[in-house]
Amino acid sequence: MRIRNKNFDIKQIAESGQCFRMDPISENKHSLIAFDRYIELEQVEEDLIDISCSKTDYEFIWKDYFDLDFDYGSIVGKLNSDSDEFLKAASSFGRGIRILRQDPFETLISFIISQNKNIPSIKVCIERICETYGNRMKDNKSGRDYYTFPTPIVLAEAKKEDLRALKLGYRDEYIIGAARAVAVGDIDLNALKICSHDEAVKALKSIKGIGDKVANCISLFGLHHIEAFPIDVWMKRVLSEYYQDKFDPEKYSGYAGIVQQYMFYYIRHIHGVSN
DNA sequence: TGCCAGGAAGCCG
DNA sequence: CGGCTTCATGGC
To answer: A167: Cβ under 7 Å from strand C?
Structure first.
């Protein structure tokens, strides 16, 4: 399936820190595991992408996953006509980034793992969880084996000693607790998609192991509340070095999360980080 | 070897 | 409320 879009850069999305199961497999080509499926994406040209999926799967799954009905170009354009020089450069540099509509449960667990870890380390942990608790699948087109992300019920029944062997550190009991909360219905992730960002964050923070930053990441990347504004160590760097801690996300009310992604991606580039 | 990573909980004042 | 310490693990 071939898609033409001016604001759709696979490498940028893969390196934007919002998803952890998108990996380079060759020059201009990435693999992605999501929703129990495996696809490959090739950046043919700057605004042209090939996805290894049927037209039906594109229409019903991937178009939504990549948020392709939303016009990111209008956001980039708006930021480029603004007086904020840092955001002008950041949005221009990361203009191919999009906010994915990922599976809420996978996002929830992934960002609990993310705390106090770098991105390569987060990926390793997630793969270990999938290999241990997910289902082994085979993609016929590429011949590749892969593992799905486990369901809430399976993870909720995991033993702490078994998780300990996966080297998740102190996060293992957070993961079991969160999976149980979802499995028994204490947390209804689909309901949190419909309610407001503030309500979602409040509900998420009732889970042990989820603080303000992780809750905002889940809200932004798993529930698609694009007004969320997660502040991690990189964002703290941006806000202090370029804004003297006076940046107000309210200026970008309604889409601050997109602005945040441009900032995050750009500051890491400035500091020479590429994973 | 000490420091850092898409932090959060527990405790103290 | 704000600041400090501790919590596993891996990479540099």
So the answer is: yes
